[in-house]
Amino acid sequence: MAEVIWGLATSHVPSIGAAMDRGKTDDPNWKALFDGYAPARAWLAEHQPDVAIVVYNDHANGIDLDFVPTFGLGTAERYEVADEGFGRRPVPDVIGHPELSLHLVESLIDEEFDLTVFQELAVDHGFTVPLSVWTPDPGDAWPCPVIPLLVNVIQYPQPTAARCYALGQALGRAIRSYPEDITVGVLGTGGMSHQLAGARAGFINPDFDHMWMETIETDPGQLAAMSREELIRKAGSEGIELIMWLVMRGAMDDRVTKVHSDYFVPASNTAAGIALFDNRNGQPA
Amino acid sequence: MTLSSLSAPVRERGTTSMSTESGAGRPDLPGTPIFDGDSSRRGLRMNKLFMSLRDAGNRERFLADEAAYCREFGVSAEQEKAVLDRDWQAMIDLGGSIFYVYKLAMMDGRSMQYLGGVFTGMGEDDFLAAMRAGGRRDG
């Protein structure tokens, strides 16, 4: 059976990718963010999974508003890196894992999560920035095949936090029921508190973010009980994308071991968070 | 930094919606536009125009005759005016999604901090300074 060995929660702001692509990681406005990534990157480099799943949302690049799938899963052999209008990021295209994808689709639909299936999908910064946070220098290829799991967080009504957590739990069961003995890393992306439009633009809520960072480890069910309105009020209209962390967390065991976390303001107009959890219970880290 | 000066000329939709969920309506929070199904329905043509600007050839055609490009996409007269005037707040009010509106801003060489300066009335420099000081708070 397949096993989730780690979960990584991280912001996916485009400017983090741009800072890396333009060699600005030592810039005074960015250095502390990237220094904060270092321990997680070092650990991840020693714990390479066979496949990764990235829970993310598209930003007008791979899909538009003709179709707004609440949840979607890619089943392709390959995902192109999208050109978002300023040239595509200089990072490799993504190799998929269609066999695991198709198993996940069947398992999740059997569990009544009626996902939209993507056979073709260009992946944008929401997907590639988390891969870069994990692997800053991928060379010609990312460390392993990666599967996109899309969540609608940009058009209200987004799925509830509870539904995202339940999807994650079903995802964990689906992974564990895969017949091959492979290891899987799950990335939950987005957040933390931020708001891009309106008179409240620039809103950041460090108290909420610190609570979320702590509770995602210890009591994710408590976060899953939050309403959309509460999330938007406390984390900002775009901070609601933190619900994607709950998909990642749901796929892990109740008890996880935190490897590293860090918090940084501002990454563009957002609070950036990273949290890495080891899911191999009873094993030395 | 606080949000105490919400009297800035912010045009937002009604204040009558319920503040609960379960189909009772979207959240109605001060200074917080919610891009919902109704916004998306009104903004669909304009958002499609913004998405098309990912392509360099489309950006050239847009810049050559912005009004004609707007008509080609079938946006409303109000939306066309907002686009031509670069009235960012109006684009949001008329159904623009910030992630789509941002495509036009990027084409103009504008940053999300610039847009934040517009939406808050602070101007880009003060907005950026507020972000670097830890972001803005509800006040």
UniProtKB/TrEMBL annotation, chain A:
TM region(s), chain numbering: none
GO molecular function, one term: ferrous iron binding
Keyword terms, alphabetized: Dioxygenase, Oxidoreductase
Domain named Extradiol ring-cleavage dioxygenase class III enzyme subunit B: residues: 9-270
One Pfam assignment: LigB
Entries under Gene3D superfamilies matching the protein: LigB-like (3.40.830.10)
SUPFAM superfamilies xrefs: LigB-like (SSF53213)
Domain of life: Bacteria
NCBIfam families (alphabetical): PRK13364.1 (NF009901), PRK13365.1 (NF009902), PRK13366.1 (NF009903)
Protein name: Protocatechuate 4,5-dioxygenase beta subunit
Organism: Blastococcus haudaquaticus
From TrEMBL, chain B:
Superkingdom, taxonomy of origin: Bacteria
GO molecular function, one term: dioxygenase activity
Chain ranges of the Extradiol ring-cleavage dioxygenase LigAB LigA subunit domain: 46-132
InterPro entries: LigA_sf (IPR036622), PCA_LigA (IPR014159), Xdiol_dOase_LigA (IPR011986)
Keywords on record: Dioxygenase, Oxidoreductase
Region (Disordered): 1-41
Official protein name in the record: Protocatechuate 4,5-dioxygenase alpha subunit
Taxonomic source organism: Blastococcus haudaquaticus
